[in-house]
């Protein structure tokens, strides 16, 4: 196991913790959203700051970067759209009455979730609310979208899946705003969710320490993944394997189709707050202020990246560079060349994808232990 060494670059321009980090589809830019109320655009070519996005009146909770536009949401109850070349604010989306937790841009629509107990769909071009999704009894934390052709034969216009602190997830018909299904079974807040590639199965992680799989068309609970001893904070779905990061300081890997646990990734000294699978390596971020690289097949720890002073809220990988964003306000770039290649897959015995920074990682925000 190699040590992390020094970061390639430390970007400490923000004056508050970084709550989220987004990579553009073309891989040319990064977007960070911060407690200081600003967002910043960065070049992946050299790690320099390209633009400062100013305008929000409170901290930025989440952000999404597209090739031609950046989107941010904030505790000021608004969402903003920005020009990625000039940094100019192009549109302000107003309508939510409390903190906006999460946004998602898909099929020329903008979806949002809020502490006001609603999710909303907006026209990306006009900045107007196209649909409100009402029915949750508490704040809506996380979002996922299944569009055509995933569910075309069943629901025209696609489906929006939302997770809430009311212990349910809901499936909404985007075209009508009607609730298609309510997914009941969790006994704690739904902090994270991912959809499979066909878009018909949702995986949800909760404070009840379980991951659950659901058929979003029928609402049926397909299986329950039990073994975690703490809240499930983050999920990643890759190659029919579900990776779940937890407050119990572990990541577990499960077969998506059966619920069988195939391995556990240990070595974290605090909650696992972020996950990213890349080219056979599982990268994790933790409340112990370290990022780690594991061989995804064997579970072996390959490298530890030390340098942050507080919880790592988000990670991205592009090319041979790992990007980590922390509540200490820094964006760090790490060279991941030289990691041992993934071990060849062993035969399987059987075979049959955010609460976000504020809640999901709250458990991780604790004083650090010495190395």
Structure description:
WD repeats lie at residues 11-43, 53-92, 93-132, 133-182, 183-224, 225-264, 305-337. This is WD repeat-containing protein 86 isoform X4. Keywords: Repeat, WD repeat. Pfam families: WD40. It comes from Bos indicus. This protein has 371 residues and is mainly beta. It has a domain at 226-338: Methylamine Dehydrogenase, Chain H. The chain contains no helices and 33 strands. It has strands at 2-3, 9-11, 18-23, 29-34, 39-43, 49-53, 60-65, 69-74, 79-83, 89-93, 100-106, 109-114, 118-123, 129-134, 140-146, 159-164, 169-173, 179-183, 190-195, 201-206, 211-215, 221-225, 232-238, 241-246, 251-255, 261-265, 272-278, 281-286, 291-295, 301-305, 312-318, 321-326, 331-335. The strands form eight sheets. A five-stranded mixed sheet has the order 1-30-29-28-27, with no helix packed on it. A four-stranded antiparallel sheet has the order 2-33-32-31, with no helix packed on it. Strand 29 and strand 30 (301-305) form a beta hairpin.
Give a concise summary:
By secondary structure, the chain is an all-beta fold. The protein contains no helices and 33 strands.
Please state the overall shape, judged from the principal axes of the Cα atoms: globular
Record field, number of beta strands: 33
Strand content: over 45%
Q: With helices defined by DSSP (H or I, 4 residues minimum), what is the helix count?
A: 0
Q: Give the low-confidence spans.
A: 345-371
Return the CATH architecture of the domain at 226-338.
Answer: 7 Propeller
Side by side, the strands of the main sheet go: 1-30-29-28-27
CATH third-tier fold name of the domain at 226-338: Methylamine Dehydrogenase, Chain H
Give me the Rg, rounded.
Answer: 19 Å
WD repeats: 11-43, 53-92, 93-132, 133-182, 183-224, 225-264, 305-337
Protein name: WD repeat-containing protein 86 isoform X4
Pfam family, one: WD40
Keywords: Repeat, WD repeat
